[in-house]
Amino acid sequence: MNQKDTRKESLEFNKLQKRLRRNVGNAIIDYNMIEDNDVVMACMSGGKDSFAMLDILLSLQKVAPIKFDVIAVNLDQKQPGFPEHILPEYFESLDIPYYIVDKNTYSVVKEKIPEGKTTCGLCSRLRRGTLYSFAEKIGATKIALGHHLDDIVETLFLNMFHGARMKAMPPKLRSDDGRNVVIRPLAYCREKDLINYAEHKEFPIIPCNLCGSQENLQRQAIKTMLLEWDKKNSGRVESVFKSMQTVSPSQLADKDLFDFVNLPLDREGKREEYAFMEATVSSTNIDNSMFIDVTNI
């Protein structure tokens, strides 16, 4: 690679790095994810997303106007062939506090799930429970997960298509028992940016298929659908995410979110509105017949 190409690549990476840091910073501010004196437990799976999340949190920690601690935590689920040395060596190279939690959830999953069936659902529940409990032990006030914008949108469609529910992954969540707060600092980040970032940073990524489970075919189908949308209409995935931030309960159909049964009329307010419209039209050459006659209402 010549000097010109090297300079261009460096410039592109700087833009990418700034964009990701800006997106994470904005998500943290928008949802008040991290507060002064927080202890953030960064959950590290060994995948590209958790590596990027930790890297960006550590960089923001140095310049943030508030003080917060970051502790890296990996749950070793005793999957066959899991390279146990990689994450400890990486954390030590960063000189940051970390824990490796040993919990043989792999055996539990294999015992409960029939051969050939996907193990992801039970595995994630066991992992979540273990991490929630450990967060309390170390005094963590926030649990940071590496889910990104694509994950959130995929989950929305998964729940709509296969669960008949309109729900996804919120950027910030209080656990059901009320004892932990989960944050997703990568909520505004696209997966394609994280892939490029991980490749440039050369993170020691651990493959996620060590357990031998089948791929989550439903999620993969949604991912393929969204990729096609993105190719045909750039920005479509971001638009779906933004729609989750701009919800109009009265324009949906959930009776618990909006009282459709008792809808009071406000004819006086509408009378003034229609009268204003009629007066405006009267002063123009527009055909008045297209508007409601409010004089006899």
Q: What would you say this structure looks like, in words?
A:
The protein has 297 residues and is of the alpha/beta class. 49% of the residues lie in helices and 10% in strands. It contains ten helices and six strands. It has helices at residues 3-30, 48-63, 86-94, 105-112, 120-137, 149-163, 191-201, 217-232, 236-245, 267-282; strands at residues 38-43, 68-76, 98-102, 142-144, 172-174, 181-183. The protein has a six-stranded mixed sheet with strand order 3-2-1-4-6-5, with helices on both faces. Strand 5 (172-174) and strand 6 form a beta hairpin. Helix 6 crosses helix 8. Residues 290-297 have low confidence and may be disordered. Pfam families: ATP_bind_3. InterPro entries: Rossmann-like_a/b/a_fold, TilS/TtcA_N, tRNA_Cyd_32_2_STrfase, tRNA_thiolation_TtcA_Ctu1. Its cofactor is [4Fe-4S] cluster; Mg(2+). [4Fe-4S] cluster binds at residues 120, 123, 211. A motif (PP-loop motif) lies at residues 45-50.
